[in-house]
Amino acid sequence: MDVTFLLQLLINGIVVGSIYALVATGFVIIYKATSALNLAQGEFLMVGAYICLNLLSKHQIPFWQAILITFAFSALLGAIIERLILRPLIGSHLISVIMVTLGLSSILKALIQLAYGTDTIPFPEVFPSEPVQIGPIPVSQGYLYAIGCVTILVVLLTTFFKYSKTGVAMRATASSQQVALSMGISVKKMFAISWAIAAIVSAMGGILLGTIRGGIDMSLSFMGLKVLPVVILGGLDSILGAIVGGLIIGILENFSGGYIDPLVGGGAKEVAPYIALILILMFKPYGLFGKKKIERV
Amino acid sequence: MRCGDFKTSYAADMSIFETRTARIMLAIFLCILFTLPFYTPGYVLDIINRIGIAIIGAIGLNILTGFTGQISLGNAAFMAIGAFSSGYLGTKLNLPFYLCIPLAGLITASFGMFVGIPSLRIKGLYLAMATLAAHFIVEFIIVKWESVTGGVAGLTIPTPKLGSFAIDSDARLFVLIFVIAILAVLFAKNLFRTKVGKAFVAIRDQAISAEVMGVNILKYKLLSFGISSFYVGVAGALIAYQAKIISPETFPVTVAIDYLGMIIIGGLGSILGSIYGAVFITLLPELLRMITTSLSGSFPELVNKLAAMKELIFGMLVIVFLIFEPNGMAARWHNIKNYWKLYPFSH
Fold first, then answer.
1. Residues of chain A whose C-beta is under 8 A from some C-beta in B?
2. Which of A147, B60, B131, B302 could form a disulfide bond with B74, CB atoms 3.0-4.6 angstroms apart?
3. pLDDT at B4 (0 to 100)
4. Distance between CA atoms of B53 and B38, rounded to whole angstroms?
5. In chain B, which residues have their Cβ closer than 8 Å to the Cβ of A114?
6. Residue B98 resides in a domain
7. With an 8 Å Cβ cutoff, is B265 touching chain A?
8. Which of B126, B141, B262, B292 best probes binding to A when mutated, by most A CB atoms within 10 angstroms?
9. Which of B221, B222, B302, B311 to mutate to test the interface with A (most CBs of A within 10 A)?
10. Which of B207, B307, B312 sits opposite A107 (nearest CB)?
């Protein structure tokens, strides 16, 4: 077996996986805090990428400032969506919550399509394109920056949840809403904040994908569905699980793309995560790190 | 004058039509419906045919999701299985269409029951994810299994023939589709007057209580998956006959979302609601097309944005209905009717 090829696949897998991890983290934060399943996570990612693109190419804003503005916008978007759409549905049946996020994803997709069309738009080059030699294989610098960004964001999030007052309040809300309420925590505010954070991390994923791929289009929204195997593997209510699961699914996807696709003539890369999802649901439905509290039927 | 619902027997309580007027209205409606092909242009008839197919599919999904409470995002895949199995039976085995359609339904039903097995262990959002995964796996298999499905190129469906009588025009297809659709509505309406249908509703409302009352959860959940998939498979087979060429791209995941939207907007757990939703969601893009073509003089760029507009309005409708009328158009219609029935002496 070709070791260079294997390493190349591994690195691709880690990079894609780290983006999955980001989006999955957003998904898990929403699920933990509000027990809502956000199937519009991929659209958050797409919206973030388009906003950043707009800031970079139309308004010529430096990359780091553009990221911050995108974050602010995403946070606002997330909070508004929570207030207007999700809050009236608190306590309603699960299918309503699933369907409302599907409706939301239609709306966001349609708005992006109305504003930017369906063609792929080139993403301005922000990281130097010259590859770096790591051992025997050349790695594009964008990949390294992407992994770096994801690591920084994850560390920031962990610190936020561990030490900041809001973060602790969010964890309290996740573990018991009633107790949190009686401690004077505004649960509604925590819901809004978790949607805002989820939108921010997804937007970061979108920006990184844009820089890696060099162009963005509507297909970015499919990332939202890719995230489902990740969260099932990691456990629906575990942020650590989302990160580990993201990396595993990213690597799995690239390996099946590299080794199985030539045998079956393509397509295995796309379907492998979903086969994994079914297998995990059958054998370990609470995932790697999830709470073993699944409602049995 | 009627001033309330007074029923004196169980038979009256269980009857499908409460009054004679309702029966007469239905008869008139059916007469109008079946004379439509005589004076309707082909293009409109094509839309009506699509509505008929959507009605069958939406009732199928509603049996599973609305009545039994099992969320399925794999609807498009079931539909694809129905379409491709009917296509395979028709092209490769040369079976006539009146065998192809029920067989396609049965094949889809058995597959649906297979996908339904995890529903015995998992529920709610896990089931939604499992069925979504099933969608992508089925899509992959359809693309790869070229000897049966024709792969990416798909299948060309032969014209259905009854002896020497070819069902080749929209009008003839209309009769086929609506006969099946009416049978589907009747069967579903009656299903929920029987023990089986009541067991479905009991499972949806309170699975544990249902089990205590002696409902075999395993049996009835699988049965619900089976019946629902049969409907969806038949709808898929009819789509194949209507479209004449089917490929894996005919059944993207958005189809499943459209159908979920139909039963949400129409009314979860309501046969009439499935019909309203199917009519409404199928007409939506056509209405938009009419509006945009009439406005294209002043806003020429509108025509290109049709698909996006449809998505936008669809999403908004789903959200608005979920927030303001979670029981859908059927409930709204019921309320309006009841209000006027006793007007001005309601309450």
1. 37, 85, 88-89, 92-96, 98-100, 102-107, 109-111, 113-114, 225, 228-229, 232, 264-265, 267-268, 270-271, 274-275, 277-278, 281-282, 285, 294-297
2. B131
3. 63
4. 20
5. 305, 308-309, 312
6. yes
7. no
8. B126
9. B311
10. B312
Mean pLDDT, chain B, whole residue set: 87
Number of domains in chain B: 1
Mind listing the pLDDT tens digit for each residue in A82-111? 999 988 888 788 888 888 999 999 999 999
CA B283, B284, B287, B293: dihedral to nearest 10 degrees? Answer: -130
Helix (H) or strand (E) holding B266: helix B253-266
Chain B neighbors of A275, CB-CB under 8 A: 133, 137
CATH number at residue B245: 1.10.3470
pTM (two decimals): 0.90
> Minimal CA–CA distance to A174: which of A292, A28, A33?
A33
Instruction: Give all domains of chain A, ordered by start, each with its CATH number.
Output: 3-283 (1.10.3470)
Distance CA A169, CA A160 (A): 11
Q: Note the pLDDT of residue B346.
A: 64
Tell me which residue in A267, A281, A282 faces B144 most closely, judged by beta carbons: A267
Let me know: does A78 contact A87? Beta carbons within 8 Å.
no
pLDDT digits (tens, 9 = 90+) for B304-330: 778 888 889 999 999 999 999 888 888
pLDDT tens digits for B239-296?
A: 999 988 898 888 998 899 999 999 999 999 899 999 999 999 999 988 888 888 787 7
Residues of B in Cβ contact (< 8 Å) with A94: 71, 124-125
- Tokens representing A136? 């025997």
Classify residue B24: in a domain, yes or no: no
Q: What is the C-alpha end-to-end distance of chain A, expressed in Å?
A: 46
Which candidate in B115, B123, B135, B140 is best for mutational testing of the A interface (most A CBs within 10 A)?
Answer: B140
Name the nearest CA neighbour of A21 among A261, A240, A270.
A240
- pLDDT score for A200: 93
Any A CB within 8 A of B264 CB: yes
Could you tell me the two tokens for B116? 């339904």
Q: Tell me the one-letter amino acid at B171.
A: A
- Asked if residue B128 has pLDDT above 90, the reply is no
Placement of tokens 């970079």 in the chain: A56
Pairwise CB contact (< 8 Å): B311 & A110: yes
In chain A, % helix, strand, coil (3-state, to 5) comes to: 75, 5, 20
Which residues of chain A carry a pLDDT beneath 70? Answer: 1, 292-297
B109 part of a folded domain: yes
**CA-to-CA distance for A192 and A30, rounded, in angstroms?**
9
Is A5 within 8 Å of A258 (Cβ atoms)?
A: yes
According to the model, what pLDDT value does residue A195 have? Answer: 93
The predicted complex's ipTM stands at 0.87
CB within 8 Å: B316 and A107:
yes
Q: Which of B124, B136, B314 sits opposite A94 (nearest CB)?
A: B124
What does residue A215 show for φ and ψ, rounded to 5 degrees?
Answer: -165, 155
Is residue B130 in some structural domain? yes
Which chain A residue is nearest to residue B136, measuring alpha carbons? A271
Give the domain range for residue B177.
41-341
